[in-house]
TrEMBL record:
Family matches, as CDD domains: NUC (cd00091)
Entry superkingdom: Eukaryota
Domain called ENPP1-3/EXOG-like endonuclease/phosphodiesterase: residue spans: 107-313
Organism: Porites lobata
InterPro entries: DNA/RNA_non-sp_Endonuclease_sf, Endo_G_ENPP1-like_dom, ENPP1-3/EXOG-like_nuc-like, His-Me_finger_sf, Non-specific_endonuclease
Protein family per UniProt: Belongs to the DNA/RNA non-specific endonuclease family.
Protein known as: Nuclease EXOG, mitochondrial
Domain DNA/RNA non-specific endonuclease/pyrophosphatase/phosphodiesterase: 106-313
PANTHER family, per database record: ENDONUCLEASE RELATED, NUCLEASE EXOG, MITOCHONDRIAL
């Protein structure tokens, strides 16, 4: 047959092109009528059979996207798939679908998404301004407590942390909320807390939080997303995710913590930086730049898209633009002494810490002096009251 067509084509120039056109045209015409003619349903039936074999095709390409920042999707309608599904077995929804945690819980100055399995937040979002980080709110009036907005069986408790070897690490720090006591109190809900290495919490992570507060002096708005990560390690040539759980509620201990920082001001270019800090003691010599990662990498690690309404191309690198310089060791030592003064349980201990500062040739600044004087008055009042009661 093929030889005959070639022989015929040699006698009649262009005949091959005509035959090809006729064959393709006839095929397209057949497909058209088979897919549009209601009386001829064989092709339609074949399509339905293909879809039945490939469940992911059922709801169309509009639900399969790669980058939700750039592609318009119907992700907000996923919860209503039952309404558009072509599943004839409606009884599958008789007792409802497995229920997850609320998308988010909003407080006075932070918003969080809670992980009911790990008993920690997945992410915590804050918006800082220079006015919010100043004020009279005092963490001495705040207490760690379970978040009653979380179902009881998914809550973490203080008992989970006691004697665990891990501290209760804020994701939204108390000091970011000095403008309002209620806002500060809300940061002590355990929904905002992760098991954190004590040294990391009190030193390197604290310095990073302080750096974020310092950004409010240079930018009118600072947006921060913080949370835990559970990253794999290489073991015997395999990637293994391994983490401790603590307490009767099995609160997950993250291997790392992350923080995404976005700062903007009308007079400056918006800046953006993402950081992943190991949940362990970190040397004072380590620069913040050592822990900076591409935001896309952090999104892959966490499974989250940060600031989805932001055009990333319009933001410059935070560390390149602002320097990412954290507080000095001398300043951090002064803060540590301030903590010890604030937590002194009696006048003798208070005076001992004060004298120790002098012996170490540390000149207290106004902030530390204010802490000392305030705590001194409080302890004197308490001790005077105890004397009165004993005399009665």
């Amino acid at each position: 047959m093929a030889a005959w067509l070639r022989q015929l084509g040699s006698r009649f120039s262009g005949l091959g092109n005509v035959v090809t056109a006729l064959i393709v045209g006839a095929g397209l015409t057949k497909i058209y009528y088979e897919t549009t003619d209601s009386e001829n349903v064989s092709t339609q039936k074949q399509i339905q059979e293909i879809i039945a074999r490939h469940d992911h095709l059922k709801h169309g390409n509009h639900l399969r996207t790669i980058d939700p920042r750039q592609v318009k999707t119907n992700l907000d309608k996923l919860d209503t798939l039952a309404e558009i599904a072509d599943n004839e077995d409606d009884n599958v929804f008789k007792y409802g679908l497995p229920k997850r945690a609320p998308d988010y819980i909003r407080y006075r100055n932070h918003v969080l998404c809670y992980d009911q399995a790990k008993k920690t937040p997945r992410w915590v979002l804050e918006h800082l301004t220079r006015d919010k980080v100043k004020g009279e709110a005092d963490r001495a009036h705040s207490t760690f407590k379970p978040d009653l907005n979380i179902p009881a069986r998914f809550q973490s408790k203080n008992d989970d942390y006691w004697d665990s070897g891990w501290s209760r690490g804020h994701m939204a720090p108390a000091s970011n909320n000095k403008f309002n006591q209620e806002a500060m109190d809300a940061t002590f809900f355990l929904s905002n807390i992760v098991p954190q290495d004590l040294d990391n919490n009190a030193n390197y992570w604290y310095r990073l939080e302080a750096y974020c507060r310092g950004l409010t002096k240079r930018y009118s708005s600072v947006y921060i997303v913080s949370g835990p990560l559970y990253l794999p390690k290489q073991e015997d040539g395999k990637k293994i995710v391994k983490y401790e759980v603590i307490g009767t509620n099995n609160v997950a201990v993250p291997t790392h913590l992350y923080k995404v920082i976005l700062a903007e001001d009308e007079s400056k270019e918006t800046v953006l930086g993402a950081f992943v800090i190991p949940n362990e003691p970190v040397s004072f010599e380590r620069k913040l730049q050592d822990f900076q990662v591409p935001l896309e990498d952090l999104e892959r690690f966490s499974g989250l898209v940060f600031f989805p309404a932001l055009n990333y191309g319009k933001a410059s690198d935070l560390c390149f633009t602002d320097g990412c310089k954290m507080m000095s060791k001398e300043r951090m030592d002064m803060i540590v002494y301030g903590r010890r003064l604030r937590n002194a349980e009696n006048s003798d201990l208070l005076q001992k810490v004060w004298e120790e500062m002098k012996e170490n040739k540390m000149a207290p600044d106004k902030f530390t002096i204010d802490i000392y004087e305030r705590r001194k008055r409080e302890l004197q009042e308490q001790e005077t009251e105890v004397v009165k009661i004993s005399e009665e």
